[in-house]
Structure formats: structure tokens, C-alpha cells
Amino acid sequence: MTHDHCRRPFRCVALALAGAIAGHMTIALPAQERPVAIHNARILTMAGEPIDRGVVLIRNGKIQAVGAEVPIPAGAKRVDAGGGTIMPGLVSAFSRAGLTEPRGDPDQRRSSRRSFRRSRGSRSAPKASNRAARKIADQLYSRQDVFGELAQAGITTLGLAPRDDGFSGRGAVIDPTATDAATMVLNDEAFLLITPVPGSKAKKLVKEALVKAKKLVEERKKPKPAAAKPAEGDKTEAKDEAAKTEGKPADKPQDKKPPTDAAKGKGSAPGQGGPGKGKGKGKPKKDPNIDAIADALEGKTRAFVDLRSAYRLVHYLKAAGDHQFPDTVVVASTLDNNEGRLDEVVKELRGLSEVVLMEAKLTTPAFGRAVECPAATLVDQGFDVGFLLPDQPSQAREVFFALMELVRHGLPQAKALAGVTAVPAQALGVDDRVGTIAAGKDADLLLFTGPPLDPASRLERVWRRGRAVEEAKR
Amino acid sequence: MRALTTAALAVVLLPVLAADLTGQRRRRFPRRPPAAEPADPAEAPSEKKAAKVERWVAVRGGDVYLGTGQLLRRATVLIGDDKIKAVGHDLDVPDEAEVIDARGKAVAPGFIAVKARGMGAPSYADEEFADSLNPFSPDIKLGLSAGITSYLAQVDRGTDVPGGRSAVVKLAWGDVDGMLVAQDTVYTMRVPLSAAKWRALRERVEKAKEGLAQGKDAGKDAAKPADKSTTKGQGGTTPGRSARGGDKGPDAVTKILRGEAKLWVTSSGNFDVGPLRQALEISRLLGHGVVLDNPVGAWVIPDEVAATGSMAVVSPRLRVRPDPGRPDDTGSNLAQAAILGEAGVPVAVIPPGGRFGGSGLGRNGILGQDLHTLHLDAAFAVRGGMEDRRALRTITLDAAKTLGVAERIGSIEPGKDADLLILDGDPLHYRTFVETAIVNGKVVYEKDKEPFYSHIHR
User: Fold this and answer.
1) What is the H or E stretch that residue A191 is in?
2) Cβ contact (<8 Å) for A200 and B134?
3) Which of A55, A125, A204, B314: disulfide with A70, CB 3.0–4.6 Å?
């Protein structure tokens, strides 16, 4: 810890000097670095069968080769894994870490994502708002110990999520080992988070926003005499290219927008437009929230839907109707026993998404004693199940024990490990870089002294893009 | 020789048994001839109907308590999708029908808890209750295990004028679309009213009547302003509680005048003869019977109550000590439900309020036990002298009437919702358990599969 504090400013200066290039790859190391070969390791690639006594060759922060027969080039720095196990770095896809102001007292630095905010006996209907355009990356407090601690716990990629009910905003992918906000945020529009809540007002909000966004999508599709660009943008739909230049298509329909409002008679839904930002304008009202939703409807950004229970799922499906996002990930940020579990409504769930991110937890039915493993049920049904990692570093370190419990209740080991690596990486859309160990991917690696799901194993080292995060102090 | 002794014994014993039968009503399956002719076979599904129905279920061979007071022995209930299509003997059961064997069992309409909490309805007043119903609440199963298939969820109450928000909710496990029976068919208010409040109520009713008289088209428009004042009036008396969502559609008074909603009248103090007569005065003002909520003094003037067409929601085992100065017209005991029933007042039964469970069914009692006792409260009414058949009505058809939804639920009759129970004995007997509960034509509870009573085998 103290080492870390001393070192960081230096690294920061070095980076500032070295990295004059634009883009996020600046974090990567200077152009020619001595390759590193980790040998004498059992490698869980998450992309195929494990490799016994294999080698991972790292160059410039990337995995150059992996396998049993990889020749180690002369001059490479050799790291003996001592027969330990290598697996990909953990991906926490849905986190609230670092979103609260840093405090002096570490006890107060806890995230509140897990707390129940709305008690069941509430006397008023749940409220929801449309803040789809909001970026959670803007609320990030970058200089916090929590990120370094999470990296030490093995989390090498972090997805940050907004929280409010309704259209919550857009989540970000961040690098927990970076030291300042600019280099930390890898993608500030990684996903659009929707947190549907039951209740007439909340459902109306979702319904109306989706209808508006759908109209906007159709307008964008119309060929425009002035510019040919938007049509092209639509065709390349789900390409990550489009995701990067995402700001542009949002601006384009501006000239087309007023006719819609006039046609619709925009007085029909006052107040629904946006408790967020897009209010108070004159006639050419353009709601950035609707733009953000339209992007997700087009598949330019993916949608995360935080459905904690079967109850929320059925009401969300009723509110959303046919307006489904092409790229949807279902999140269950908590599992509420009083509202039915998601694995009880598999059919409806499948209609929404095949990828589910949920807590690594066993449950007990409300009036029963049986212990059930919803994750195992969903995996049996063919879902890709990812697990939410705790925001608190001390709890994050215990995630493997939670996984062991699930494995004991029927979850296959490989699925348990994929649930903290490959699946969340896929959910965040960063599976081209992280989540598995394969040539060309980022060298985000964990070294365990034994099998990760063995209680006797411990996490020995963490590499983020080929660089050791910090020697684990134990 | 042996046969002779048996015969002799029989001769001796039969009158004894018969005497016992009359004296002790609470036998399982009391021997009584079916009170009704079997339902008309013509009501069996015709070809045309069969084409539309996707799923047939036949509950066969049980003793069917229709809920209207009639009992059909070894009859069949034919369910098409979510409705009851036919009840009777020798029905034409379609070949594809799923048959549930109820031989040796009792079949009864699902019980209706006219006051309850939880079980899937929100605790807040939503604009549309359907948007907040939770079909996965574990309490739904708990309610079903006690035979409850529908209940009234009240979230706001009116005070000096009819108001409040309520919904009749069905325990359709897992089916969010099948849960809402009706919303805002029950409004509430309190008596006694001061002279000024009585005047205000009267003006309100006159205004609403005028609106209605101005013609059907004007009805809704006229209701609007009146409605505004409704919420305002309520807001004045219970600030911040009743303004929510109350101003949609025609206002409470208009709906009551049209007969689309029931007015429940309760008393802020003892519901003795004084306030009771004012409640009856309100019913005369409205031209519709009201529902008297826990009218402790009603047994004193049952005929007056009956004359207004009013109904009563009582708790038979709620014993209220009489005023020592007026022992003849205050207080209440087991007999009140029977006395009102005799006079022709439809009575719905609820568990007692007070220390163990509040004024309705919920999970508040000891280990949530008050959710389990609805049929026992009806049995208390029998203990107080009410007829068996009428007692079953207090938790089925008459209960539905107090909620204004009797055209949909409360009895096993063709055209009604297929909400019924298969029980292992007389519906009101304390030994009886619900074996299967069917809501909207679907089996939603089976005793063997749920944790509540599966350990009890009989």
C-alpha cells in the first residue's frame, strides 16, 4: 500500500512523458519491452481445455503466445510459476466502486450498491426517471485506494454502473490500475443501464421513452438528401466502430427532430421528457436521453437491464413490449426472495437475454429450508451466467469462496470461473481484449498457488497488461 | 342370529345417530339431500364454444359446494380456460380435458378474504394496481394453503366522504395478468358525521346525482369537478394520504350511485346503534345499500339493516363487552352473524381485530397464523347459530357481494371465474385442508408440494 503510494506519481509522470499518442493504449508500456515468459504453470485459458505445464509469453502488455510447446525467446524475462495455476484477470462487470467521494476513514468508504434502498412496506409507488444520457464515468473519483486494492484482489477490468431507477445512465469500463481519470476510463459508453421498477408511473416512463426512441431510430434510418452518412452508420450497426463514434449519430437527427414533436403533439406527455437534462428548451426540443436509448435500440450500445426478480422481469416485459434492445444483458444486482427468482421464469428470461449477471449466492425459498443454487439452474438451462464481484476489496478477495459454495451445489467449476472472467467480459463487450488467455489479448493474468477453487490456494500475483500489479502481501 | 343382532342394533342406533346429526352440525359431510337440481346439461359446452376454448379441465366426482348455498353430490365441474363452463352430473366432458379426480373430496369456491394485506398487492396506491402486483409473493402460497383465492387490498381510506383506494386481487400465482379482479370497487368512509360534514356529504351526493341526471354523455364530465373536490376534501381531513391517483375516471360518489362500487362504512368509535343508523341514512341517501364494516350493534336492529339492502362485514368471534348501562343494545357476541343472516343481511366474515392480527388477514399474527383461519371464522358463525350453507357464503358469494365483484367470483356457476378448491372434507371443518387450489383454471397450490401442510397426512 505505502509502496503503491510512493510509486504512483512516478509512474504517472513517466506515462505523461512517454505517452503522447492518443487513445487508451497509452497506458501500455514503451514500444519495445523485454518479453516476459511465465512458465511451469497450469493455464486455465477459459477458451478451451486447461494446459498443464504451459507457457504464457507476454510482449508489450499483450499475450503473444500461450501453450505447452511455446518456445521461450532468448532474452525474455523468465518467471517461474512454480507449478501454480494461471487464469485470466477477473472482470467485475457491474460495480459501484469509487463512485462515492473518497473519505479519510476507510470504514466509510463502502459502496452502497448492495443496500436495500426501498423497503417492501413502502407507502408510495416507486419513482423512476430517465437519465439515459448520463455517464457514470463523470461521477468517478479516480484517485482512490479502492481501485488499487481491487486490482490486488485480482480484478483487472471494472465495469461501473449508475444506480437510479428508470433509465439509470451509461456505464463505463475502467482500468483499476490507472491513476488518473483520463487514462482510467476505457469506454464511457459501455452500456445503457435500465433499472425497471414496478408501478404505473415507472412503467409509463419506460414505455413512453422507448416509443419515442423507436421513432427516432426510424427517422435515423430514413435516407437523408443532405448527408449520406447516417445511413452508413445504421448499416454498420453493432460494430464497435459505431460505438466509438457514437456521439455523431446522436447529433445527426437533430434537423429531423422537430417534425416528430409537431406530429406527435408534444404536449401529450409533459414532464416525462426528462427530469434529467433535456428540459426547459424551446420548440426544437432534443432530448439526449432519448438519443441514448435510441442508440441502444439500434444496437450501437448494449443494454444492461437490472432485473432483480421475476416480479420485476414480468413488469418490465409488459412495459417494454416489442421494443427490445438487440443486445441485452440481464443483471440481478440483488436476489429478492419475496419477488420470485429469475430462474423461475426461464422462458420469459430467455426472451430477453441469454447472458445473466447475478450475485454469487445460494438462496432459500421464503417458506422452505432447501438451499438452492439459481446460478446452476440457469447454467443448466443454457444461460451464460456471470457473477457480480463485491465493491469492497476485502469482500472481493472472498469471491472464490462464494464460487466454491456454488460449485458444491451443482455449478460446474469451469462455469464458475468463466462467470468471473469470460462471461462478464462478453457482457461488457471487452471480450476481444480480456476474459480469456489467448494470443493477442491483454496480458491480464492471475497466478494462484493451486487450483483457484481450492481453499488451500491463494492468489500470488496479478498482472495487468503484462505488468505486475503489486506483489501480493500476505 | 348375528344378522338379527346387527339389525336390532341398527334399529336402536339409527335414531340416536339421526339425533346426533341434527344436534351437532359440524360433522363432515352432513347427510342432506342435494338442495338443487343438477345443473342443466344444456349448459355443457356446445361445439361452438369448444372451438374457442384451448384448455379443458374437469374436476370430477367431488361433492360440489356451489357457494350459493347449494350442494351437488358427486358432481363434475367443467372448466374451459379460466372460466367455469358447466357444473352438474353427466356432463359432456371433452376428450382432451385434463381430469382431476375429486371423488370422496369436497369442491368449494375459492374463499374471499374481504380484508387482507400482503399476498402480492402493493402497500401503496398505484394509479393502476395491475402495474404493481407481485405474482411471486410467497404469501400468495400461504393464502392459498388456507383456501383464499381472492382478497380485498385497501391502501387508502376515505374519511368524511367516500374515498380511498382498493383492489380486489386474485392469488394467481405466477400470472401477473390474472391477478387483478377489479380496482376501486370499494370505497370507504367513517361515521359518525357532524352536522356540517353530513351537509357536505349530502351536497356532494346531490351534485353527483345531478351530473348523472344530465344524461349519460354529461355524466363523466360532470363527475370531474365533483371529483376534484373529493380529493380536496379528503386532503383536508387526511393530509397527504388520499390525493394520490384518486382523481382518475368518475369519482367515488358517482360510481357508487351507478352501482359500480360499494361503499364501506365503518365507525371511528363503537359502531353501536347510533352511528349505525347514520350509516343506514347514508345508504338511503345514496339509494344503494352500504357495507357496514364491523357493525357491533347491528344485531339490535337487523331488520332496519336489511330494509336498506345493506350488508355487513363481521367477525363472529369478536366479543365486545356490553355497556353495563345498556346491556340490551350494546356489545356483541358469536350470534351476531347468525342474527343478521336470519334477517336477510348478506354477511361477510373476517377474523377478529385486536391483539393478534389487526383488522384483517396478514402475516402479522403469531407466525402469520391469521392467514390460516378464514374458514374457521365462518365456522364460528355456525357456532353462533348460522346455517352451514349460509356460513360458507360468508367467505364466498356474500363476501364477493360486499366487494362488488359477485358477477365474477364467489361461487361455482357457469360463466364465473374458475377459482375453486378441492378439500379433504367439509369446507368449514377444522380438520379440513385444502388439497388443491385452482385459480383462473390453473392449479396453483397442491398441499403435497408446498411446505405448509405437506407433513400432515390423513
Assistant:
1) strand A185-195
2) no
3) A55
